[in-house]
Amino acid sequence: MKILIVAPMVPREGGSGAIPILLLAQLRGLGADNEVTFLSAFGDEAGEAEAAAELTAAGLDVHFADRRLPATAGARWRRRLRLGGAWLRGGTPWRGIWFADPGIQALLDRLAAERRFDVVVVEDSAMAELRLPAGVPAVLTEHEVLRPRPVDRHPGRPRHWPRWALGELDWRRRPGFQRRAWGRFDRVLVFTRRDADSIAEMAPELAPRVRVSPFGLVLPNPADPAREVPGTVLFVGNFTHQPNRDAALWLAREIMPAVRARDPGARLRIVGSAPPAEILELAGAGVEIFADAPRVEPHIEAAAVVVAPVRTGGGMRMKVLEALASGKAVVTTSRGCEGFDCFEEPPPLAVADDAAGFAAAVASLLEDPARRGELRVRARDFAERHYSPATWAARLLRIYREAIGEAGGSAGG
Description:
By secondary structure, this protein is of the alpha/beta class.
């Protein structure tokens, strides 16, 4: 099958957030038996341009626009005016303006003129307003469905009010923007049943197009149990994502005190990118903060228990999958289980939805090395069977073939 993937970020291990990691698994899984062309852009984030260069040097069919900050002041101001003007014209949220770089559209137009594709796959609705090749079946991967929500009435200090106001205005655009995006595609792929239900509620006429398929990842090496540090409880998150901030605050303020009351030697490590002041201020007795750690793997190996006390947000949790694939005992909430509950067997996760129950689950695992060892084995096996690049690619290809068949096309592979 000839597949064109259009994505907002560069595939790479250890990228910021889940998207670069899952894109790498997608590229490897689909590329094993199909002709995959990948299109994206790289920016100023550390390591992003280097990752794009490595993929190009590896001989893959990849194409990248350069959205790094221009070198001259005049060019920087012209870009700011272009981005700001696009936002002020309304309708498109900031994410769609930032990631759908004009350079990507230029590359997309060139590829469409030069080649024929069986299917176009657009990753994330931020890219959904790009002009796609005419007559080619199209599949959108909606990474997280954002439902309408009430206004956040906590603007913070006066100096934060302009940013708060712009953020609230931008949020108001997102549900309508997503609904318009979904309607452009032959199939809409989501990672969890919750997101599928959200689309059915927000746009019931589009529900027949929606398919659920949890994502995958390039499986890491299993963690070495000998490197586990007794009593270490680990939470990893990208703190630009509000659900991760909420989870960290709940964990440090309500859950860990109950864990430490039962096990005074327990310590919480919070590891993640861009932690705001409210997260940094959690550091203290029994709580360590590692901001923008260059590598997460040493922290995962040191963890006796990995936790994901998420209470809000949609999508699937990459950090839960990484912990399972590393062979770790994981405690999470019902929401953190989403994307892991799509198979006949239950996922090897300890689950609790209130602070007392969550703390009891963590403390019980800290006290029981045999139970942790059992979960380690089951977790790795579960990840290998359901979330490897090959198994994920097989699920994706079934959805792509549906879109092609409905459009009356044909595809090999």
